[in-house]
Amino acid sequence: MSETQTVPAASADPHLHEDGSPERLAIDTIRTLSMDAVQKANSGHPGTPMALAPVGYTLWTRFLRYDPAHADWPNRDRFVLSVGHASMLLYSLIHLAGIEEIDAEGNKTGNEAISIEDIEQFRQLSSRTPGHPEYRHTTGVETTTGPLGQGCGNSVGMAIAERWLAARYNKDGFPLFDHDVYALCGDGDMMEGVSAEAASLAGHLKLSNLCWIYDSNHISIEGATDLAFDEDVGLRFQAYGWNVIHIDDANDVEALANAFAAFKATEDRPTFIVVHSVIGYGSPKAGSEKAHGEPLGEDNIRATKRAYGWPEDKSFYIPDGVLDHFREAIGGRGGKLRDEWVAMMERYRGEYPELAGELDLMLKDKLPDGWDADVPVFPADAKGVASRDSGGKVLNAIAGRVPWLIGGSADLAPSTKTDIKGAPSFEANNYAGQNFHFGVREHGMGAVVNGMSLSHLRGYGSTFLVFADYMRAPIRLSSIMEIGAIWVFTHDSIGVGEDGPTHQPIEHLATLRAIPGLDTIRPGDANEVAAAYKAVLTDASRPAVLVLSRQALPTLDREKYASAEGVVKGGYVLADVADGGAPDVILIATGSELSLVVDAHERLAAEGVRSRVVSLPSWHRFEMQDAAYKESVLPRAVTARVAVEMAGEIGWDRYVGLAGKTVTMSTFGASAPIAKLQDKFGFTVDNVVKVARETMEAK
User: Fold this and answer.
1) Domain total for the chain?
2) Residue 62: in which H helix or E strand, if any?
3) pTM, two decimal places
4) Which end of the chain is more exposed for a tag (fewer CB within 10 A), N or C?
């Protein structure tokens, strides 16, 4: 097959006729449900769902391998609506397909995933049909989309996951995993850099199970796309190594079917189908710009329905036979395929019981017995080890027992220490590899890791903390979706030293801590790193950030100080007053500053000051504890408090109060050896002791 081709229209007339066929009725049902829902909500985007109704119909009824009665079937095809503003297209498809709802525990509720009443409640509070599709919120939605390009990146991660699962679990006669991934994207997706990063990676990996359908309608919010965008996108994807197919008319269902068949026959590269559409197609009276970003208006809707041969006075109308036709088309095929898969899985259990058991655990987001048995306990060491190095040791200890803990770095694995020793790389010639090479594509890496995690892999991505800015959108989305993605960020402070301000994160901890539900952990020594990894791995229902150092951190003597297991609660008393009484001052720290405040505590104690050290690596976890526990760690009566962290001050007022002080950063860093920087910015024992005494005196 050539790298680029055009599928011509099936007939001389480019428009479908209102012929009353089940196919045509179903397509127009999608269109009218979409326009009615947007009109009733007085909010939303009707144009793209209307234009792409033939695409959705053709894919779902003729190609998508999906069992609506079992929406969590592991080998189902994935459909990702990267153009999340066109959510009514997906909601209409879910309703017409008759997808059954699954609750948070994975049990069927007996309800439709989306009823006609849900469609009538489009964009309303607590409805199953929010403005953009939300994973977990609505059964049948494979990922949360909205920020353009993210769904594209997610689909690459899903395709990677299928290839990895197939490489590990498929055996002769047992093709457990052979599903495909489809993503519907638009001009906005193509403009966003994240989709370019993800597409480049997909082409390099030759992911022939991946198909992007590009709605080329030349309209964006501001008007015609040629205001800012006039490249030949097909040629760009051809350069990425994709098979490119052009469809002249989005309404030509036979041309669409031929394109999907060509994708299925392509075995050496992903496929990019360029579909040329007229946004808001249906009525010449419906202006294309208006149809894109706002309701059509009652008059335009009536005119459009009249053109369809639709009852003009009916809203949310589904003609007789449409549901039966659509549901039999997708469910009849998908139900049979799933039944065959379940029977094959039972035979597989007999032949490969160990792999089957492993697969069961992975799909339930559980861990094998003894998964943490090899996690090292680090002996006390005044010289210590960088937490990126101890993190690498812990990661390797776990990955040896949890094969689906897989990931890599944005071209920085030698620095972030996130490579799995002795394991092969995931490449086009070896999809069984555990080490991923995302290239210098931080944003794409984030979206891809989310897609992997949505397929029940424990995916991780790593880079320097300062570059978290490049991937904030996928980090935020991982938290919205409540998936167990793991973000490993090293080079966490001005301790980076000579690399200077461009590489020294200041505000990044505060911005990550501000994301609801994100577990941001900055461990203070090697044993806190081990405890952090164990805490993160046991909970696949939320993402986590591990913030690790480049410079060596002393490994604290845990026979003298409290156990690092306190990390699981987010904060704990590390060192306390010798006689067990109330402290006069509390020193709080995270990460590389923990040993600094321990040294300050020891000096204060030698000078007769009753000092307590609190390690607070995870604010998120600490805030989840009950009031009694938090009071035991940070008693309200003790107002003399000092927080020490080589990062911005924002947020620390929660823990130090109005009477407390911080030793933090209020400027960007500088280029110099770390010792010089610590002196310049006050991260010394002398300064911490000084600030502690000032705080006590100010009580």
Assistant:
1) 3
2) helix 53-62
3) 0.94
4) C
259 and 166 share one domain: yes
- Asked if 579 and 504 sit in the same domain, the reply is no
Q: Per this entry, what is the length of the chain?
A: 699
Query: Is residue 360 assigned to a domain?
Result: no
> Which CATH number covers residue 602?
3.40.50.920
Let me know whether 53 and 180 are in one domain: yes
What are the CB-based long-range contacts (under 8 Å, 24+) for 666-671? 667/506, 668/501, 668/504, 668/506, 669/494, 669/496, 669/500, 669/501, 669/504, 669/506, 670/494, 670/500, 670/501, 671/497, 671/498, 671/499, 671/500, 671/501
Domain that holds residue 193: 4-338
Q: Is the domain of 417 the same as that of 526? A: yes
pLDDT digits (tens, 9 = 90+) for 641-679: 999 999 999 999 999 999 999 999 999 999 999 999 999
By DSSP bridging, strand 78-81 and strand 181-186 are: parallel
- The rounded distance, in Å, linking the Cα atoms of 507 and 28 is 51
Q: For residue 309, what are the contacts with CB-CB under 8 A and spacing of at least 6?
A: 18, 20
The tens digit of pLDDT for each residue in 446-464 reads 999 999 999 999 999 999 9
Supply the CATH number for residue 495's domain: 3.40.50.970
Percent of all residues in the chain with a pLDDT value above 70, rounded to a whole number: 94
Active-site pick, 100, 192, 197, 442: 442
Structure tokens at 85: 């503003």
Same domain flag for 592 and 535: no
Lowest mean pLDDT among 187-196, 222-231, 396-405, 620-629: 222-231
pLDDT grade for 429, boundaries at 50, 70 and 90: very high
413 and 538 within one domain: yes
* Distance (Å, whole) CA 395 – CA 414: 14
Q: Active-site residue 498, yes or no?
A: no
Please tell me whether residue 180 adopts helix, strand or coil conformation. Answer: coil
d(CA 415, CA 496): 12
- Both tokens assigned to 577: 């007053």
